[in-house]
Specification:
Elements: H1 2-36, H2 41-46, H3 61-68, H4 74-105, H5 109-123, H6 130-139, H7 148-168, H8 173-181, H9 186-197, H10 199-215, H11 218-223, H12 232-237, H13 248-280
Helix pairs in contact: 1-13, 3-13, 4-5, 4-7, 4-10, 5-7, 7-10, 7-13, 8-9, 10-13
Amino acid sequence: MKKKTNQYTLGSKILTWFFAALCLVWVIPVFEVLINSFKGNTFVSLEPFALPNAESFAGWDNYVKGMTFGNYPFLKSVLYSLFITVVSVALILLFCSMAAWYIARVKSTFAKIFYYLCLFSMIVPFQMVMFTLTFTADKLNLNTPYTIPIIYLGFGAGLAIFMFIGFIKSLPIEIEEAAAIDGCGPVKTFFRVVLPMLKPTLISVGILELMWVWNDYLLPYLVLDRTKYMTIPIHVQYLKGSYGAVDLGATMAVIMLSIVPIIVVYLFCQKHIIKGVAAGAVKG
């Protein structure tokens, strides 16, 4: 027994050090963006891995320049990104949880086909449908920040429904039957009984979808009219001067401003992601 315990302890230590090193590898790029956001443009190019010193330190000038550069206000991009993210995630959580409950509880051919179509949507690469999607979005007037959440709902449904179904199948159906006996219809049963029990998966799905929508560049770039609407990732690309010159210091500052909110949200909510994924993996 002692031998096994020692082996287990040694294995745990090795895994701990391995994942700590792996974590460090993932953190280094973020740290590089942070230190370069406080350096002058020339020094970002010449000494990208050096810490800011008296000569290269630019203070908050890069942040001010990044937020005021060009004709398109950075605050406007923030508001568009915030609106698109919040509305898209809310739609995904509401409609996908309802759809997952229907699929999990209704044993019909239609429910099975719909479920497999959702799984298939997770496999198909975005690049295969992006040109057709752009054409369809223009025809249906889905090319504004106020309508693009509908497109995000379609693309985010696959993962969300898959996770919700896994968790719903682990819930005792007797609770829903008791609610029906007490006079609750399907809508009331869902919102008063099922939805509160879905809290762990709601949080985990919400965080995963939030990180995806907030950081997404390709879909808004293809669908939105860039002369009128810019999200933060698109705004970063257009931080160019004359002849295509890029102010790297200002660009790093704007990138830092865009990733800090999502990092903070993830750090505070990461335990809920693990709980939700584990809960959704109980039954498939």
